[in-house]
Design a protein that fits this description.
Elements lengths: L3 E16 L2 E12 L4 E9 L3 E13 L3 H16 L13 H25 L7 E9 L3 E7 L3 E6 L2 E5 L8 H9 L4 E2 L2 E2 L9 E2 L21 E6 L5 E7 L1 H4 L4 H12 L5 H14 L6 E7 L8 H24 L8 H9 L16 H11 L10 H18 L2
Antiparallel strand pairs: 1-2, 2-14, 3-4, 4-5, 5-6, 5-11, 6-12, 7-8, 7-13, 9-10, 13-14
Membrane topology: Lipid-anchor
Enzyme class: hydrolase
Cofactor: Mn(2+); Mg(2+)
Amino acid sequence: MGAFLDKPKMEKHNAHGEGNSLTYGLSSMQGWRVEMEDAHTAVIGLPHGLDPWSFFAVYDGHAGSQVAKYCCEHLLEHITSNPDFQSALDPEPNVESVKTGIRTGFLQIDEHMRTISEKKHGVDRSGSTAVGVMISPGHVYFINCGDSRGLLSRGGAVHFFTQDHKPSNPLEKERIQNAGGSVMIQRVNGSLAVSRALGDFDYKCVHGKGPTEQLVSPEPEVYAIERSEAEDEFIVLACDGIWDVMANEELCDFVRSRLEVTDDLERVCNEVVDTCLYKGSRDNMSVVLICFPGAPKVNPEAVKREAELDKYLENRVEEIIKNQGEEVVPDLVHVMRTLASESIPNLPPGGELASKRSVVEAVYNKLNPYRSDDTDSASTDDMWTSSSSVVSAKTGA
């Protein structure tokens, strides 16, 4: 949904923090979309006496940003204040009760937003997916409603990831059809690309059906995973603008490789969104990275390899330009396509050449300071569509 800009907006919103033996960083970028509809929440130390607990979430809005913004500000309170969740205050919280409380919080905020919308005579027709984690001393509760996604890296590999709620999924499709709807072009009634979301009240008005039986359901799936102090590394929460161009294992490997060269989590998140932009993502992009004490640490050998790779790319760009001769300076498209056709050692796993675009562009601009503005704007989209397709063909992506 939504129109596109002539040039992506690459300015980023960043934040970071630490507490409860966790560190986190986040990054969000508007990208090619005409509006930024994502929002996020990061809270260490929850209200109502839950100081050892933490909550993080990403909200991916559609048809407007209102629902995403409202959930960003109010969802946590709806979860922690409802009676079903109160067992979390017990010395040994009941896992099933916590899960029930989280679901109740989602249903409550959805009904609350419906009431607000009706008072405004149905002005707001926006909706939002939500993916989050509630981290207690003993468990990680993954929460998902829609097609944003969260994953847990444990012991050097993807240990868990949430399942996207797509209309074509058999159980989702069955609910939609039972509510009198249909799935066309993998969308609810040929329009909405997700089968669960907060808001979207035009899809929640089938008489005789409860809130979780509508065309679009606000009910999240909640998964409780027991923590492993020895093996838990990090959690990634991201909207589909990230997952559209990176698979679970690719993103996990890329993040792990970045953590070996820097402990700046904002920088890691910025590299994720930039890399996904250059891999061809056309959506808003938001990512939250939460690290446990067992996360990968900066490795001097990895730092050295990274520096050598950057130097190698700088030299290759210079060679490509010189090989064209003094009369003709190749454009950045040609440079990228040439590099993409080569076998370059030690490129970051999952990110590949796209993750090094800034290095390539910096040396290109230094060597060609009088380039036309067209290289920076209109041709950028074509450049990354063409160069990323070369990389995909080489890697079998």
